[in-house]
Design goal:
Blueprint (H helix, E strand, L loop, with lengths): L7 E3 L1 E7 L2 E6 L2 E6 L3 H10 L7 E3 L3 E6 L17 E6 L3 H20 L10 H19 L7 E5 L6 H8 L4 E5 L7 H4 L4 H11 L4 E4 L2 H15 L3 E2 L2 E4 L2 E7 L6 H7 L3 H10 L6 E8 L6 H14 L7 E8 L6 H21 L7 E5 L4 H10 L2 E4 L8 H9 L6 E5 L12 E3 L4 H13 L2 H17 L2 H13 L1 H7 L4
Parallel strand pairs: 1-5, 2-6, 2-8, 6-7, 8-9, 9-10, 10-13, 14-15, 14-17, 15-16, 17-18, 18-19
Antiparallel strand pairs: 3-4, 11-12, 12-13
The structure holds GDP-alpha-D-glucose.
GDP-alpha-D-glucose binds next to strand 14, helix 12 and helix 13.
GO molecular function: alpha,alpha-trehalose-phosphate synthase (UDP-forming) activity; trehalose-phosphatase activity
Protein name: Bifunctional alpha,alpha-trehalose-phosphate synthase (UDP-forming)/trehalose-phosphatase
Family: Belongs to the glycosyltransferase 20 family. In the C-terminal section; belongs to the trehalose phosphatase family.
């Protein structure tokens, strides 16, 4: 039974680049299609009874986010469903090109994933970033009430916490970063005015969260180097205001993936995924992105085929790539390299009755995804850099049969939690090749032991525990300061 002595009341305001639903307007009216993404269901769990915190929600969750509908299109439309009330942010195409495509995706994404040579440092991008963060702020000014708790997400909104802090000094503000925070040698490549703005912006929050302790350390070093503030026990003291910086490894809806194993549609998809000719199946799924290490993976598989001939004709690698940003030249070029490499491997090793790779460029429904997770003997996840990587956690959670081997890159945030996986270095093709062979040869009992250990961890710390954990930190921060005698 929950027994909270100081039960606080208020509303939760989520700020993320996108709204939690798509708004479709036609002659018959307006429909809202709620996204099924992890963040949406995670924050919903807070408001819908699985809230384990000392907080009472007074209203629906308020959500501030960008919409590609125009203000005219949405005039008079009620943007709320049973769960959320949306407050749209309108950003013109030109501004969004420089803000979202430019600063966010052509600079911060590559730089923070350790691809500095393709990062574009353009003044107009930074100006657009400031302008767009102000648009999010403007959309919030009339929404925020004294007891609201504000939770801001990700690299598109790094300036926002401080903008809100200036105007609403008493509200609790949290900021969570979903991508890696890089080491200072990478971060310092940003012009000094930009990096100061980013650190000042993020430090407007009361609680700043990252996926791993490494990212926390890198961020704290950036704080020290850029604004000269050290920390004590992960607390930074800023003009008599304390900011907590800590690791909160995001997770998944464990039960949903585990239960899906017995869903008739998943059973059918699992059955359809394998032909009788396939003795062993290796699987991967990612968005098309250079951070996901798709070419490294193919090179590792090629090395495996070259060196472990005994597996020819017996193993198939099902590689699903989900279309993403393929209007951009760099992504098109990457895709054509992937196409060529798949073609080369097929041409060199394939036989009339055996395809070493089954490669598809499309997205798929949830049931097919879990069908593939549960049909495969090995999941091959090789990002060259990844904030967390949820695919590997989903693979583990969906294996109710306690079978299957996870091969995981040490560059994924998830590697810090999934030590029972076969951990590889994605730039080392030999390492990947040997791990594939080891995974294919692994005894069922060894598979089970590793799987069970990883499952236990993910079951205990699922996405709902993650949300509760972060949210509790936000609302309890004052008591925490007193307890630690920090203020
Ligand atoms: C960012 C960070 C961090 C993919 N294809 C299909 C499909 N998916 C789902 C997966 C998974 C999600 O998309 C991808 O999540 P990741 O974590 O792997 O990657 P990012 O999109 O890059 O996410 C990342 C994450 O934020 C959370 O903080 O882990 O590091 O880069 O859930 O299942 N789902 C369906 N069909 C598909 O074709 N149904």
């Amino acid at each position: 039974m929950k027994n909270f002595t100081t039960r606080k009341k208020g509303r939760l305001i989520i700020v993320a680049y996108r709204l939690p639903f798509k708004i479709i307007k036609n002659e018959s009216g307006t429909s809202l299609f709620q996204n099924s993404g992890g963040l949406v269901s995670a924050v919903l769990s807070l408001a819908q009874g699985s809230n384990n915190t000392s907080f009472e929600f007074e209203d629906k969750i308020q959500w501030i986010g960008y919409t590609d509908n125009t203000a005219e299109e949405l005039e008079g439309v009620t943007l709320e469903n049973d769960n959320f009330k949306a407050h749209p942010v309108f950003i013109s195409q030109e501004l969004n090109d420089n803000y979202y495509e430019g600063f966010c995706n052509d600079l911060i994404w590559p730089l923070f994933h350790y691809f500095p040579t393709i990062a574009k440092f353009e003044t107009k991008f930074f100006e657009a970033y400031q302008e767009a963060n102000l648009l999010f702020y403007d959309a919030m000014v009339d929404v925020i009430q004294p007891d609201d708790v504000i939770w801001i997400h990700d690299y598109q909104l790094m300036l926002l916490p401080d903008l809100i802090r200036q105007k609403f000094p008493k509200n609790k503000i949290g900021f969570f970063f979903h991508i890696p925070f890089p080491s200072f040698e990478i971060f310092r490549l940003l012009p000094s005015i930009w990096r100061e703005a980013i650190i000042d912006g993020i430090m407007g929050a009361d609680v700043v969260g990252f996926h791993t302790n490494d990212y926390v350390e890198y961020f704290l070093k950036a704080v020290r180097m850029v604004i000269g503030q050290g920390n004590r026990m992960h607390y930074v003291n800023l003009n008599n205001r304390l900011v907590k910086v800590d690791a909160f490894p995001i997770s998944i809806d464990y039960k949903k993936f585990n239960d899906a194993f017995d869903d008739p549609l998943v059973i059918k998809a699992r059955h359809d995924a394998r032909t009788p000719l396939m003795e062993k199946v290796i699987f991967s799924v990612d968005r098309l992105d250079y951070s996901k290490g798709l070419l490294n993976r193919l090179k590792g598989y090629e090395r495996f085929l070259e060196q472990y001939e005994e597996w020819h004709g017996r193993v198939s690698f099902v590689m699903m790539v989900v279309p993403s940003r393929d209007q951009i030249e760099q992504y098109q070029q990457m895709k054509s390299e992937i196409d060529q490499t798949v073609g080369r491997i097929g041409a060199q090793y394939g036989k009339i009755n055996w395809q070493p790779i089954i490669y598809q460029y499309r997205s798929m429904p949830f049931e097919e995804l879990v069908g593939l997770y549960t049909a495969s003997d090995v999941a091959l996840i090789t990002p060259v850099r990844d904030g967390m990587n949820l695919v590997c956690k989903e693979y583990v959670a969906s294996r109710k049969d306690e079978q299957g081997v996870l091969i995981l890159s040490e560059m994924a945030g998830a590697a810090a939690e999934l030590g029972e996986a076969l951990i590889i270095n994605p730039t080392d093709s030999q390492d990947i090749a040997d791990a594939i062979n080891k995974a294919l040869e692994m005894e069922p009992e060894d598979q089970r032991k590793r799987m069970v250990a990883m499952q236990q961890r993910l079951r205990e710390y699922d996405v709902f525990a993650w949300t509760n954990d972060f949210f509790t930190q936000m609302i309890m921060i004052d008591q925490e300061h007193k307890r630690l005698k920090l203020d």
